[in-house]
Every structure is written in structure tokens, then in C-alpha cells.
Task: structure prediction
Amino acid sequence: MHVLNNTNIDELTNLFYNIGENEGTNVTMMISGCFYYKNAILFLDENNYLIDYIKFSFDCRREESSNSAVTTGKRCTYKFNLIENFFYKYGINTTSP
Result:
């Protein structure tokens, strides 16, 4: 587990909300039948209780969040690679065993 500091949070927030396709751009995403979520970002309150999450399957290029208010922003053909690189940067493996 890697706990994010304020700099990490800013970096991840930038990936989520400042990177995305322009309005009107068609983004094609291939969705396969696999649903093995290996990685997640957990949002905890001040008492360390889980309040929200986003889980990722980098093998399948899928994500799922705990509610519709928790997103990674606009879809983008290369955003998943950037998020995966963020995980790698902090030594978090994203590939299936």
C-alpha cells in the first residue's frame, strides 16, 4: 500500500481532471469480458474509514467506482496508460500474477 502525500494527490488529480479528449471527440474503448480488479485508490476519512474507491483492471482497461461522483474525469485514449504509469512510479505492480 502506498499512502499519497499532497504532491501525489495533486499529480493524480491532474491526471484525472486535466487530461481528456476535447468535447465532440470520439473515443473508442475496447471492453473485454475480464473483471479482475487488482489495483484501487481508496478514499479514507479522518478516522481511516473507507468512504469511496476507484478500482482498476489495467489488464482489461476497466475501472469501477463506488459512486458516480468519484470518477477519473473525461475518457481519453491514453489516460489509462498515464494512471498505470503513476502506479508504477510508486512501485505498485499493475499486472496480473
About this structure: The longest helix spans residues 6-17. The chain is about 25% helix and 20% strand.
